[in-house]
Amino acid sequence: MKPRLYRLLSAQITAILLCSFFIVSMSLITPVYGQALATKTLKAELIVKQINRTGKLAFKRTLTLSFKSSGYLSQLNIDEGESFTKGQLLAQLDSTELIAEKNASYAHLLQAKRDVKRIKTLLSKNLSSQQALDDGKTLLLTTRASYKVALYNLSKAQLRAPFDGVLVKRFTELGELQSPNQGALQLAAIENNLVVRVALTAAEVKLVKLQQKISVNLTGFSAISGTVSKIPAIADQQSHLFTIEIFLKNIKLNQVVVGQLARITTDITTDILAYRLPIEALNSVDSQGRALIMVLVSHSTEAEHYQQQAFVIKQLSNTYIYLSAKKSALPLTVVTLGWQQLVLAKEPPLDAAQ
């Protein structure tokens, strides 16, 4: 008994659903002659595209310092995240060997000077030759150059801050042997050195220009105005996106956290003309993907004549459909309310591109 009852209930529910679907379908295609028509006149305008992306705050430039000479690290005065001032001593090598080389070079220089002086004295008494004097002067020049190199190497045994900044990363420890090709400290300036890096698609990056103003939203700040400072020539090989940089001026490092998320927003006017159609005015979409809308084609004191026309869709948003328009396109009057009364007109849709 129960299975039969279930079958009857299932059949009744199916019938109710079919009737409901039929009524709803008929309401969509049957003209509601009592409903008033509402129209809106559209003018061809350039499409404005909005770019909303999330990026990261980063340093625009960093500098990696390394020692010119080999040696063991004997002094380290800063750690990651700490600030420093221009000229401050950050790190230093054990300079025992470099000082010895400098002293030896200086001793050779003194000896070369004495030799030249002695040869000149002998030459004045015809006890030496001009060739010996020339050789002595050459040796004096080479020993002086060697002494300057030793002084330079000794000065480069110290790493001093070239600007006011912060230590981003430290690659070494006290007592480690340093080599000229080994990075020791990575620094970043704290003045005018913050950017937001954002990845854009190829279509979006074409719309962005250098020095273009971009609105940036950071936590703890109202909208900040930034400028595009870098647009890459090629895309990232893995993501196939273009990472642009938006420069933030006069933002202090102690006000933000490098690496935090930032939201950018900008409106870009393209060179594409289109009609901005309210989405409620859309009748349907044909098999070719064109938008079908009801357009006022003639107007007189006796009657108004409307015709359904097809337009190529250029862009979509939540509230508007952008329809293709030519440079010489005239204003377009479309039906936004009550177009259901007119969709049963016998005239086929007209291709607006013709």
Automatic annotation (TrEMBL):
Protein's name in the database: Transporter
Matching PANTHER family: HLYD FAMILY OF SECRETION PROTEINS, MULTIDRUG RESISTANCE PROTEIN MDTA
Provenance organism: Colwellia marinimaniae
TM stretches of this protein: none
Domain CzcB-like barrel-sandwich hybrid: 68-187
Pfam families the UniProt entry points to: BSH_CzcB
